[in-house]
Design a protein that fits this description.
This protein has one domain. Helix content is 55%, strand content 2%. It contains 15 helices and two strands. Strands 1-2 form a two-stranded antiparallel ribbon. The chain is globular. The termini are far apart.
């Protein structure tokens, strides 16, 4: 697998935009509903299950969708690749073909309004909601965005995951599974309806919202607030943000990532917590990950932003003249 785009992707067709009203309504309802329902339906087991699923599905996105598929930062056997992809898919953020194409567009046109799918220069609403509601053709038309992922197109599983109908079915089945698991794990010897609803709210609904907007913070907060130790291309406003890194498994070291997008490690300093890298490192130690791409300290040094030397005091300059 290589991080690549087809030659045809260099000149994408004219971009069109349409507002998807049914999706907008569904998305807003399923976003607001769990934020209200969690105050009425909660149990210890549902909250624990929420955090377990947040970690598993989230790492499927960060380790799989992002570092493995989007940037080919390492390789794994096909069975493990598919397992990671399924974990990421259960976060309900579309399949790898769409997600990777969107992310490659982001890197290609970073922070250019109208070209970067989710730059905060078009507003925070656009980052967290607008770009999914207003269907730009280069992001949402499969005939266009598939040009950006020729390295993934031959995989039947990823093509199956690339249909929105499949996404809706997956979301319904996930919620049904959460409901049944909650009911079974509740009262001993009986189906616990209250706990079933708790699981539906926390695992089925809230988990999707939490992961979606945690990634949204990478695209919003990590292009607005934080440090910028490395030089990136002109107009790129990516930053490093510790809080976002803690929230979404090391992805908040965004300036590091934009400086070295092919690196499997984004927390480049020992103190920069990067759980996704720890998972990749563990897979490498177990012999399951190979061709793990790293950035040498020398290469990092060349990209550091170095302060300009302070101008000499005028008096000293005049004294030499």
């Amino acid at each position: 697998m290589q991080e690549t785009m087809s030659p045809a992707a260099a000149e994408l067709p004219e971009i069109r935009t349409r507002t998807d009203v049914p999706f907008t309504i569904i998305n807003l309802v399923t976003t607001v509903a769990p934020l209200v329902l969690v105050f009425y339906y909660h149990s210890r087991s549902s909250i624990v299950a929420f955090f377990v699923c947040y970690v598993v599905f989230g790492l499927g996105l960060t380790v799989g969708y992002h570092r493995l598929f989007s940037h080919a930062a390492f390789r794994v056997p096909k069975w493990l690749e598919h397992t990671i992809a399924i974990c990421g898919y259960l976060a309900i953020q579309r399949g790898p073909l769409f997600w990777v194409a969107m992310h490659r567009l982001h890197h290609k046109y970073v922070d250019i309004p109208g070209k970067d799918p989710h730059t905060p220069k078009e507003g925070l609403w656009h980052v967290h909601f607008g770009w999914t509601h207003e269907r730009r053709s280069d992001v949402w038309d499969p005939m266009i965005y598939r040009l950006l992922v020729p390295d993934l197109l031959d995989d039947k599983l990823y093509r199956f995951m690339d249909y929105e109908a499949t996404d809706y079915v997956a979301y319904v089945l996930l919620n049904l599974a959460a409901f049944l698991a909650g009911g079974a794990l509740g009262l001993p010897g009986a189906f616990d309806t209250h706990n079933a609803i708790c699981f539906l709210v926390w695992v089925g609904m809230l988990n999707r919202v939490a992961l979606l907007h945690a990634f949204g913070f990478i695209n919003s907060v990590c292009h607005l607030v934080g440090s910028r130790p490395f030089r990136t291309k002109e107009g790129d406003q990516s930053t490093n943000n510790l809080l976002v890194s803690l929230l979404i498994f090391g992805e908040g070291w965004h300036n590091n990532h934009h400086a070295f997008p092919g690196s499997a490690r984004q927390g480049l300093r020992w103190y920069q917590i990067d759980p996704s890298w720890y998972v990749i490192l563990l897979l490498e130690k177990l012999g399951l990950a190979r061709s793990v791409r790293r950035v040498s300290p020398r290469v990092q040094e060349r990209k550091l932003r170095k302060p300009r030397p302070a101008p000499e005091p005028l008096a000293e300059v005049e004294a030499r003249q």
